[in-house]
Design brief:
40% of the residues lie in helices and 13% in strands. The protein has helices at 2-26, 104-117, 136-144, 157-164, 200-204, 219-231, 244-252, 266-275, 303-311, 318-328, 344-359, 361-371, 376-379, 383-394, 398-405, and strands at residues 92-97, 124-129, 151-154, 177-183, 187-192, 210-213, 235-238, 258-262, 279-284, 336-339, 380-382.
C-alpha cells in the first residue's frame, strides 16, 4: 500500500514535468517570464464636468475656394503723394554772362541770381562769362541750349543794340529770349583824378582828344561818338580791354583819361575812390523816359543837365536824337533772361521767386547799395513792366534802327 502511494506520487510529478516541457516546446522553447502580480487598483474617480467658460463655436466646414472671377480685393488706402518742391530745387543752373568778369553786367548779374536762388529752391549756380564778339558768343550759346529752364543769360545794353543794328555775329533770334529781371541802371562817365578837372567845361578846356577805354564796338561806343558832338569834347576811343573793370584800372594808372560804368557798381567799386579824388564822375545817362537821375548815383548830373548848364539850352538836333534813342533803348540795361519755351513749372517758380525776392528785407537792404533805394519797384524791372519795355525794344521803329546803323 505504501509502495503504490510512492509510485503514484512519482508518476504525478513526472506527468507534471512532461506537460511543462510540452508547453515550452509549443511556445518556441522560450523560457516563461513570470507575470508580476497586478498593482493594487485605485478607486475610480467620478467624472467632473469642465468649469464654465466661453461657449465653444463649432468650426464650420471649409468654404469652397473662390475662382479668380469671384475674388474681390479688399479696398486699400491710397499712398500719400509726396509734396513737390520748387522746380529748381536740387538742380544746377548755368548762367551765361555775355560780358567780361568784374564789370557792371558781371557784378549785377551774379548778385541778382545769387539772391534769386534763395527763393526758388536754392539751385546750384554755375557762371560762364562769354563776351567774345560783343557778347554774341554768349547769346548764341544761351539760345542754342536745351530749353529746360536750366540755362539763363545775363545780357547787356550793348548786346541789344548790336542785335538791333545787325552787327557782325549777332544773327541769333533774340525774340526767343525773355527778360525776367533787371536793374533800372544808368551809365556814368568818369575821368582820371590826375587831370584836375571837375566838370565837362574844364574837360573841353583841355583842347585835346580824351582817351576813352572800351571793350568792343557797342552801344556805349556809339553813345560816346554822339557825346563828342553833343557836349563838344573830342574823344579817342581805345578798344581791346577785357572788361570795364580793366578800363577802370587803366584810368587809375593814367593810361586812359576816361571810361564809363553802370550805376550798379557805384557804391561797391567807385564811391570810395571818388571820395579819395582818384576818379571824378562827370555825368550820367539817366533813367526812364524823362532821363532823370538814377537814385544810385543821385549826385551825378545827367547829360541833359550838363548841356543846359554849358549852353543855357536843352540839347536838340540829329546827334541828340541819336544819343537819346540809344539811351532810351537801354531801359533794360542788364537783363536776366530765360528762353521763351522753358517748362511752365519753371516759369511759375521764377515768377513766384522774383515776387518773394522783391519783398525780402534782406534784398531791400542790398538794393540800397545797388540801385540807391529800398523801393525795389522803382529800382528794378520785373513782371509786366519788364515785359512791356522788352516789347517796346522789339518794336523799335525802322527809322531809329536806320539811325543806329549809321552811327559814327
Amino acid at each position: 500500500m505504501e509502495r503504490r502511494t510512492g509510485f503514484g506520487v512519482m508518476f504525478g510529478v513526472s506527468l507534471l514535468l512532461f506537460l511543462v516541457a510540452a508547453t515550452a516546446l509549443a511556445g518556441g522553447c522560450a523560457q516563461p517570464t513570470p507575470t508580476p502580480p497586478p498593482p493594487p487598483t485605485a478607486a475610480p474617480t467620478p467624472f467632473q464636468p469642465p468649469a464654465a467658460g466661453p461657449a465653444l463655436t463649432p468650426t464650420p466646414p471649409p468654404a469652397a475656394k473662390p475662382t479668380p472671377a469671384q475674388t474681390t480685393p479688399a479696398p486699400t488706402k491710397p499712398s500719400p503723394v509726396p509734396a513737390k518742391g520748387p522746380f529748381y530745387q536740387g538742380k544746377t543752373v548755368t548762367v551765361v554772362i555775355a560780358a567780361g568778369v568784374g564789370g557792371g553786367p558781371d557784378t549785377v548779374g551774379r548778385s541778382l541770381t545769387g539772391y534769386l536762388a534763395k527763393h526758388i529752391g536754392n539751385p546750384r549756380i554755375v557762371y560762364e562769362n562769354r563776351q567774345a564778339g560783343g557778347g554774341a558768343t554768349g547769346m548764341q550759346y544761351f539760345l542754342q541750349a536745351k530749353p529746360d529752364g536750366l540755362t539763363w543769360a545775363v545780357a547787356t545794353g550793348g548786346v541789344q543794340m548790336a542785335w538791333l543794328s545787325e552787327a557782325q555775329g549777332h544773327n541769333y533770334d533774340i525774340r526767343k529770349a525773355a527778360p525776367i529781371l533787371s536793374t533800372t541802371q544808368s551809365t556814368f562817365w568818369y575821368v582820371d583824378g590826375k587831370l584836375k578837372v571837375r566838370n565837362v567845361k574844364e574837360l573841353v578846356a583841355l583842347r585835346r582828344p580824351i582817351t576813352i577805354g572800351q571793350t568792343v564796338v557797342s552801344s556805349q561806343s556809339f553813345k560816346e561818338k554822339y557825346l563828342e558832338k553833343v557836349l563838344g569834347f573830342p574823344i579817342k576811343q581805345v578798344f581791346g580791354y577785357s572788361s570795364l573793370n580793366e578800363t577802370k584800372l587803366a584810368v587809375l594808372k593814367g593810361e586812359l583819361d576816361m571810361s564809363s560804368q553802370g550805376s550798379g557798381v557805384w557804391s561797391s567799386d567807385f564811391a570810395s575812390i571818388a571820395a579819395a579824388g582818384q576818379v571824378v564822375p562827370l555825368f550820367q545817362d539817366g533813367i526812364g523816359g524823362d532821363m532823370r537821375r538814377s537814385p544810385a548815383i543821385a549826385t551825378i548830373p545827367t547829360i541833359t543837365e550838363v548841356h543846359q548848364e554849358m549852353l543855357n539850352k536843352p540839347p536838340g538836333g540829329k546827334d541828340w536824337e541819336g544819343l537819346k534813342a540809344l539811351i532810351l533803348l537801354r531801359q533794360i540795361p542788364i537783363p536776366l533772361m530765360v528762353q521763351t519755351d522753358i517748362p511752365p513749372e519753371a516759369v511759375e517758380t521764377l515768377k513766384t521767386g522774383i515776387k518773394a525776392l522783391m519783398a525780402s528785407e534782406e534784398f531791400k537792404d542790398f538794393a540800397v547799395t545797388q540801385v540807391g533805394t529800398k523801393d525795389t519797384e522803382r529800382g528794378y524791372l520785373f513782371g509786366d513792366e519788364i515785359a512791356r519795355q522788352w516789347q517796346k525794344f522789339l518794336d523799335t521803329p525802322a527809322e531809329i534802327v536806320a539811325l543806329l546803323k549809321e552811327a559814327p
